[in-house]
## 1
Amino acid sequence: MSKSYTRQSNKRSNLGITLLLLLTLAIAVGCGMRVAALHHRSKELSITQAQLEERLEEVQNESKELEERGKYMKTKKYIEDEAKNKLGLVNEDEILIKPKQSDD
């Protein structure tokens, strides 16, 4: 009887070790898949970050241009240019020469 008990014990021990190895393998595969997914997500986020940084630079440049335009719009030169372009006004010391319109 001791032989059969030993055989059953060995079978149970082997079965336990096999199940433990399978469980360990399943956990390792699961972890590997998760690492791969996280690595892929990391690459996507890096690309998105680069795009956002580029867009930020563009917006900062636009902001600078708008600030410069705002400063220019507060100057006398801007007012004179607008008066000349939109209203056709000239300074007192200027002479406006227009081409003659032909009546063809």
## 2
Amino acid sequence: MSFTDEQMERYSRHFVLDEIGFQGQRKLLNAKVLVIGAGGLGSPAAMYLAAAGVGMIGIADADEVDLSNLQRQILHGTQDAGRAKVLSAKETMNRMNPDVTVHAYRMLVNADHIMDLIRDYDFIIDATDNIPSKFLINDACVMAEKPFSHAGVIRFQGQLMTYVPGEGPCYRCVFRDPPPKNAVPTCKQVGVVGAMCGVIGSLQAMEAIKYITGAGHLLTGTLLTCDALDMRFRRVPLPEDTSDCPVCGTHPTITDLKNSSVYPAGALS
């Protein structure tokens, strides 16, 4: 494909990067990334993917914009209060970059249809805020052989890892089973700094861009953690032996999403 004059200017800072260049930008424009969650993590991830020129971006969320979201969910503005998050997100991304086709999915992502949702995408970003959804996304991506970025934030802390089929452990290899209900506090209960979402969500976009272009090294086999109060990043090596994982192991026991009680219907809210 040839680039228009507008694209030559828009992506000029990518073109001069040896790791991306013209070939990498073509890959981005032909790529398809799905962001599940249009909140604190999904906002910076989706915005940077759109700015980078990822050709097709899907964004899935069932919620409406609330004023309490705006401290961290930068896809939305005060005027969007009460509107569907995915529609606000689509408008923001379309204003940012006309090269990008945005598909808005206003839905509760659950075991009944997640496989259909992820089927056409090259990379999945888990930008959800609840544990059942994270296990659901992990298991679906493993079964569908889709790479994805997991992340989570709370207070001043964040973490992320990347799964690529055949190249390292999945989320369930690290966190085998969901904790008991109400055992893990939520951001609503204990708070989160908005900028922390920006740091981690931007890194998720970076992982997607690296996967698409082939630049650098992905966070496969590594959990990256960040403590913003001390501004300390740590790389935690993950288990290399994944053979006994119940979903990506040698003899998986989780083979059907619909029959699992780990993630009830309507897990993503």
## 3
Amino acid sequence: MGSMSHHKKQYSHELLEKIAQKVGTPFWLLDADVLRGRISEVKSVAEPAGVQVRYAMKALSATRVLEEMRAAGMWIDAVSGNEVLRALHAGFPPGQNPPVIMLTADVFRNNALDVVVEKGVFPNIGSPGMIRALAEAGYSGDIAVRMNPGFGHGHVNACDTGGPSSKHGIWYERLGETIAEARRYGLRVVMLHAHIGSGPKITELLQNLHRLVREYASLLSQFPDVNAVSLGGGIPHTYKETEPPVDISPLRELFLEAKAELEKAAGRPIRVEIEPGRYFVAPCATLVARVTDVKKTETNPKGPGRTFAMVDAGFVDLVRPAMYGSYHPISVVGKGAANPKQEIVVAGPLCESGDVFTRDASELLAPRLLPRPEPGDLLCIHDGGAYGYVMSSNYNSVGRAPQVWLEEDGSLRLMSRRETVEDLLRIETDEAL
């Protein structure tokens, strides 16, 4: 079963206007049907191989989404103390029997160490000094170790997840001394973890996973306490309409082979885990904005003239295009949808020249061929579920946009309301310290 479902789903003008009239624009629309389709796809490749799936909740941590994951039997990969508390709030159990919630970190920040100790959450450490920190905080449970396998990368250079220039994990050649250090403090390392990143192609992921399995197989005999390995996340999602959706069905065979190979190398049962984030949620959320105006600049010696569609969403809502030139499909809904296509730059309201949604990987303007919208039309920025709302900010004192849940029967629920200036001011104080 490939990811052929609901690619770049379109919504009617009536539906989007109905929501806009109730909650204003911009808003996020989360589609239950699309999310459940992705969940069932991942289960179809993992379950036949007995692979346990964790959801990398950093991609989209809304309680409503976490509840869907829990109902589907997913476990959780959290990366901060507050993400652990969010998972507990959504009904995931604490403790390590089994370790449903795992905290993966390179640094214990804020309340992370306290949460691990108090809730008995399974820590996955990415730096050797964290062993001592755990022991000194009174932690005495089992731990996982995230290793840097020496290869792997993310979907863009800004997301370097493996190899010598990656900050993540413990270099694979130093693994033995890290495990010896844990033993000195009375902590058992029961799981090895690596995340090699979602390269842009499934073929690359398959090659990297085969390589990772071989690396694990060579290590398991040295570490008799290890009873689980994680193959990480990294199932790629196709953002561009011109590229075919990813067919993830080859993963089923890989997972079956991996479990057999690892158990043979270890001579004991090994739990194999994966932890996708982006693949689950990327296509399920659409950022819906209002077109306020369409304006032009004229060609001069400094460059060509451009047509700008001004919208009320900006990088406070979806930062990925401004941050590293990521591509999101865009569609026009309303009167202008039938207009001839022309090159359009889609720009937002923020006092920042980089507040543009149509950029390329070098972060240069990349006008998009779109129907020329009319002021008042709605503009949909698709596939924003992963690292969209969760990376939003309050720059310019803008409140975060509301999230609306679209159920399969067409009913709508407000998942989170628009932030107000009162929300932003509530945390300001004038206390003596």
## 4
Amino acid sequence: MKLRSLPSALNLKGKKVLIRVDWNVPVVKHEAWSMKHVPPEDTLKIRQSLSTIKMLKRRGAILIVLTHLGRPKRRDQEHSTRHLVDVIKNEFDLHCYFHPESVMRGVEHERLERMLLTSKPGAIHVLENVRFEMGEEDNDQELAQAYASLGDLFINDAFASSHRAHVSVSGIAQYLPAYAGPNLVDEVTALSRLLIKPRRPFVAVIGGLKISTKLPVLKILLGVCDKILIGGAMATTIEAAMKESVGISFIEEEVLAQAKKIGKNKKVSLPIDALVTNKQADPAHAHVVSIHKIPKQEMIVDVGPETLEVWEKILHKANTILWNGPIGMIEIPAFANGSLHLARIIGKRVKGRPFGVVGGGDTDPLVLISHTKKQFDHLSMGGGALLDFIAEKGTLPGLLPLVMSNK
């Protein structure tokens, strides 16, 4: 798939450029949005997109930044992108104008248009959370036209959102000259290598909470990969489906039959031991047991050392590695050790000739914390988008309007 990228010779000076980024970062958890020294893993998506923002700024474009933040049910201060402007100013010393106006309210839309008309080349304007607008997630064409009327061209540089058929992702592209941003092009180029003649052995490591959300991609990977290592609560559901006792661990009862089919596949490797603890997930009571001997009143919170040893031998032979999803309850630091150790195992292997891709909102920070980012060939900003890209073989809603014609 070849995407239509922004021509380097195109004169952007004074042109109003609508750019969709994915700044859906977890800085909302901090007590003060304007605080300095937000952990770098919490602003990773912003930092990744700033190269494109700064390039357009240098070329004299008037930037109109679109992003979502969280999943708001209504307009509220907690999910306002005003907070992102504070973070960008404090963390990256980059000045942005914030605009709270709704593009669907006549008077506010006109005010926004007037401000943009008087803007100077290189200015950066951040609009309010796109999910505050009714119709964003329904790809409402009236809303798409309202946004499009503000700009001269549209750039999608948000791979992490490109699996959504939303107005700010695919709708606006129907009404303006539309291009793929550099980060989006890099994502598609790297991830396509997983689908088009990957170097073998190809090993995927898949973790996380729910297997139900990853069943489509697991089916595709079983046909593409030589081995799939499954951890996290996903593995727990499979183990339960295979009639193992998993104590009080989280399982998805509604997909046990499908999980059993996954678990029986010879390409799948499941944990053989686990770190378990009581229902309070107390690190002080954590201990390692065989996967066949999980106590009835305890839960699985991480993989055990024997599992990591087995997986390291498999990964050591791999020439293509995909990692998505943690293999433990990483929100509690004491239970993140397995995932961090896994990051180092994979990082060491892909540092040389093998090709390594990691992605996901919970997985990318592990790479930063373990100091293995530079060892991976590609750090994808997508979690759901990465998996959907594989499951749909690249045909994501946000990419389709940007595909170059064969004519």
